[in-house]
Amino acid sequence: MELIQEHSDVTAYLAADDVVDHDHPLVDETADALWTATGDAYSYAKAAFEFVRDTIPHSADSGDDRVSWRASDVLATRNGICYAKSHALTALLRNRGIPAGLCYQLLGDDDGSNLVLHGLVALRLPGSEGWSRVDPRGNKPGVDAQFTLDHEQLAFPVRPELGEIDYPGLYAAAHPAPLKALRESVDRAQLWRNLPTAL
To answer: Quick check: 186 and 135 in contact, CB under 8 A?
Structure first.
């Protein structure tokens, strides 16, 4: 999919902010451990993706009612929904100088109902010609997201016939709609009611 950068300057996709706090000590510590085990940008990016995908359960799968949204909090609590996990992966990538941004899909149930935003990450490795989307949501039966840069293997392929959408925007900071839902929800039940239905 052709992504449209929100900012033409790629350095915007390396910045730290209140959400993607890649300068936080816990992000540094996690990135250091992953880098030591890998040593090059591709291997590190794959390891960071698998770390977030596999060791931080999606709260819908784990039943965890806590709502985390800041990358360092996601790493500390080992908990989050797709947006939060995307913030964590983006922070880990940026911590090692790999440009990364946030992107979104609109997904629903098999009958096309309950459409809500889903969060993803796009990254650009040194020497690559473009951005590659990956989905750190977390695998389960029927969901098999992988770190594949030559073709996408996301958690959920979009079904346009059901009103689902692949949004082409590539954001340097978390989009206000999902971020508002995360920040204003005291628990997962409230977050489920607050999930945005469009960008």
So the answer is: no
pTM above 0.90, yes or no: yes
**How far apart are the C-alpha atoms of 60 and 30, rounded to whole Å?**
24
Residues linked to residue 120 through DSSP beta bridges, in sequence order: 103
* Residue 110, number of CB atoms within 10 A of its CB: 7
Q: Are strands 116-123 and 132-134 parallel, antiparallel or unpaired?
A: antiparallel
Sequence-distant (6+) residues with CB within 8 A of 87 are: 19, 20, 69, 70, 71, 74, 80, 102, 174
Ordered by where they begin, the domains of the chain are: 4-194 (3.10.620)
User: Which residues 6+ apart lie within 8 Å of 8 measured at CB?
Assistant: none
Mean pLDDT of all residues in 193-197: 96
The string of pLDDT tens digits covering residues 123-135 is: 999 888 899 999 9
Distance CA 72, CA 23 (A): 9
Residue 166 pairs with which residues in a beta bridge?
105
Amino acid at 156: F
Q: What is the C-alpha separation between 167 and 149, in angstroms, rounded?
A: 19
Report which secondary-structure segment, H or E, holds 50: helix 41-55
